[in-house]
Amino acid sequence: MLPAVPRRLPQLLLSLALLAGASGGCGPSDEELMAYGPNLVWQACDMGMVLDEDGECQGVAELYEWEEAIDACLMLSAEDPGNFRLPTEIELRGELLRHPELTPARRWIDTWDLDAEEPGPEVLDPAGFKRRQKPESKRRVRCVHDGPR
Questions:
Q1: Looking at the domain assignment, is residue 23 inside a domain?
Q2: Domain assignment present for 21
Q3: Residue 76 confidence (pLDDT)
Q4: If DSSP states are collapsed to H, E and C, what string results for the chain?
Q5: Which of 35, 68, 86, 122 could disulfide-pair with 110, CB 3.0 to 4.6 Å?
Q6: Does 33 score more than 50 pLDDT?
Q7: How does 35-44 read in b/e, with b if 16+ C-beta sit within 10 Å?
Q8: Residue 9 covered by a domain
Q9: 145 φ/ψ angles, rounded to the nearest 5 degrees
Q10: What is the reported pTM?
Q11: Whether residue 49 has pLDDT greater than 70
Q12: Other beta carbons less than 10 A from residue 85's beta carbon
């Protein structure tokens, strides 16, 4: 199920501008990424982990195939309404810059690499690069929603 276009249009336009290098460089700067999405509400920990009293994520992260990851985010919306979804590349890159303490891992994002010889969904690796994966690959998930309106 795709989100309504008008609701995400400003976010998509900003993402495209940042990816196209509207800042004058070859892509968004770290400062632009960190400032992006101030109203986003992130899942406190990767799926399967819990936030302890000290604000630290504990436990073992669960790994999901791409379609399972989408469904897991939708299930969060049922428990805590807010239209949780997989993050865009720009959103997750900004979150990783804001929180360097996050465990380095490949996490699913909401895009597919359609230009590859074998098209498939993408992850963001710990260095902030997109990588195409087989849909049945198991990766970490951290869901996001657009926050209060």
A1: no
A2: no
A3: 86
A4: CCCCHHHHHHHHHHHHHHHHCCCCCCCCCHHHHHHCCCCCEECCCCCCCEECCCCCEECCCCCECHHHHHHHHHHHHHHCCCCCECCCHHHHHHHHHHCCCCCCCCEEEEEEECCCCCCEEEEECCCCCEEECCCCCCEECCCEECCCC
A5: 86
A6: yes
A7: ebbeeebbbe
A8: no
A9: -140, 165
A10: 0.72
A11: yes
A12: 22
CA distance 95 to 100: 8
Residue type for 12, please?
Answer: L
Give a yes or no: residue 31 inside a domain. no
The whole-angstrom separation of Cα 94 and Cα 104 is 14
CA 50 to chain CA centroid, Å, is 18
Question: Considering only CA atoms, which of 77, 88, 70, 91 is closest in space to residue 1?
Answer: 70
Query: Is pLDDT above 80 for 11?
Result: no
Structural domain count of the chain: 1
Residue 42 token pair: 């992130």
Q: Report the CATH number that the domain containing residue 118 is assigned in CATH.
A: 3.10.100.10
